[in-house]
Amino acid sequence: MAVSNLSPALCAPASSRPSHPKARPGYGKRSVPEQRPPREADFALLPDRERHIAGYVDALPEGAAMDIKSLAKSQPLYGQMAVGSALRALGVAGHLRHVRCLSGENGDQVRWVTRTFWSRVAHDNEWWDTLLAAEERRSAPMSTAKAVEPPAPAEPEAGAPAQVPAPAPAPVPVPVPESVPVSEPEPVHVPSQLPTPVVPQQRTAEPEPEPQSPPGPSPAFAALARLGRTDSRLALSAADCAALEQEVTEWFARGVDADYLTHALTAGLPASVDSPFGFVRRRLHDKLPPRLPATTPATQATPVRRLMMECTECGAPGRPEAFRDGLCRPCRESGPVV
Would you call 78 exposed, middle or buried from its count of C-beta atoms within 10 A (0-12, 13-18, 19+)? Predict the structure, then answer.
């Protein structure tokens, strides 16, 4: 009597399998930490196709290519459509998650890489969210350590006697050797000196103050004066420039420069301008640029996300909490693909 084989999906021997390619650096398979050793009943509750694909993926080394094309090419039983459906089912079952990670900030070009986190044991959504949050914290760059300040001098403890500096040693008298007495010299009479006449201090001439040059024109006045040199149809007089100076100052206060102002006032001029002053004043009013919103400290302190989950079905990135069973909302609502 023939005995039927109860194993619905037998894996081909390792020698007969084609070599599975490795992914590019940073991509590919990543096993979750603290994986327990493999068992025969690891994927017994899965359907035949999913059990075969799960056993094949579980045996792959770290960094192996996890795209659908590479998996379908390396095993002969299922094609790309079947492998894609199996990966979706394994994600819903809690065995894998596709994650997009920020990589290459240590002097290399910053880029996003896609990794497939694989778990031999199925886990729920809360477990995966906790794991990915810890992975994002681990991959965040460490802040530079603060400079170590030199320790301050220790203060004397309460009740301890204060240290008084030792007094300097007293000078020791040096004995003077006896010498032969010397006769004192006779006093010499020196005639008294005549008083020195007092000479009155002469007054020096004070330097004349240098003439101060008149202050130059303001940037707004200079920009208006250069309009006529850029286009003769907008030649303004000195009085016209002084009258419009305040309005140009308002433009500069909103973050534009003289080149931006000149281009805005001279673009699309008519064939002839009867009143340059009125024309420029109207354009200064009509084309006044908006004020840019000031950046708030909360906006500046917003951390840059270094990890985003990808939908197992369509590959759309997003925050981990926006996905359920590894799928985005549109793919969950569309139903499973067989």
Answer: middle
Instruction: Determine how β-strand 28-31 pairs with β-strand 111-118.
Output: parallel
Tokens read off for 181: 């007495």
How confident is the model at residue 104, as a pLDDT? 62
pLDDT tens per residue, range 175-190 = 555 554 545 555 555 5
**Helix H segments across the chain?**
48-59, 68-74, 80-93, 125-139, 219-225, 227-230, 238-253, 258-266, 276-286, 297-300, 329-334
| 3-state SS assignment for residue 322 | helix
Regions of the chain where pLDDT drops below 50: 1-10, 12-16, 107, 143-160, 180, 182, 298-299
- In the chain, where the domains are located: 28-140+306-334, 219-286
How much is the pLDDT for 317?
A: 82
Give the bridge partners for 113, in sequence order: 101
Q: Given this model, what pLDDT does residue 109 score?
A: 57
What is the Rg, in whole angstroms, of the alpha carbon atoms belonging to the chain? 44
Helix (H, G, I), strand (E, B) or coil at 124: coil
This prediction has a pTM of: 0.49
Angle at 44 between CA 43 and CA 49, to 5 degrees: 70
Gap between the Cα atoms of 67 and 225, Å rounded: 65
Largest CA distance in the chain: 157
CB atoms within 10 A of CB 58: 17
Tokens of 246: 């305040």
